[in-house]
Amino acid sequence: MHERRRLLITGATGFVGQHLVPALVERGHRVVAVVRHPLVLLGPSIDQVLIKDLAAGVDWAPLVQGIDVVIHLAAIAHRGPDVEESLYDKVNRQATAALARATASVGARLIFLSSVAAQSSPSSDRVLSETDVCHPAGGYGRSKLNAEIDIAASGGQYVILRPTLIYGPGVKGNMRKLIQLARLPVPFPFEAVTNKRSLLAIENLSSAIGLLIERDDIRNEVFLVADATPVSLPEIIASLRHGMSRPANLFAIPPALLSGLVRICRLTETWEKLAGSLVVSVDKLNAIGYSPVVTTLQGLAAMTRALPRSSAGQ
Fold first, then answer.
1. Which pTM value belongs to this model?
2. Domain containing 44: what range?
């Protein structure tokens, strides 16, 4: 039986939050969900608190009273080149730093959802670990790394998680684009792509956070978080289509020709995020008891299997 904790979760209505809140309630915890817009959250173990825009500043002091663990998910994610660095800084760093100080003042622990982008560009020719020197990717990555630095300076107890690309029902961003691509009833020339990427099922992220909530002895640490085994772009496409009850329908063309097509279509940045290699080690997280509950290939297929038939293109 897990010890029941009182949790404050920001970003509770976002993609991660919508999965994490019910998962933690199921583990017996009581959740105070921090939201920007009123939402009916059913169940006696869930309360909600309304806040305004994080960029405008939030008085966290009354919200953290009586809280055991704060889980900070709220952030501005990648929104393209038009987002000003100052906005990333206000929401992702300054609001996080203020929350970290408030959390420290009441002796609660903070679990912060950072990003692998705080550590690396979208591709790397080596396996990443927590001991690497950080080279953040763009304004988003820099804001996440600066938030980590401010958390460490707050004097409180914290755990920082750097997830890879998270996927699951309701996912947005590049994974949603890939699902839309996989729906098309045409073959793709990706069979010869040999990249490897570490992805993260939402179920595995929820399991890792659940573990860390209950491990009071894990303090002031940084963990990379991913599924157990990296996969290639052809494996991703095949798994997505498997969930749609379709064949992989892949063929090979010379890599140089494929790269040329990518450049002509002006998809170089997106291609790097999907077809470049980015593998992370989860040895440190494994050492404290992390055990993924689904494999990547299972999770990808299950995600598209859960889509409405019209969405899956069937």
1. 0.92
2. 6-171+198-228+278-293
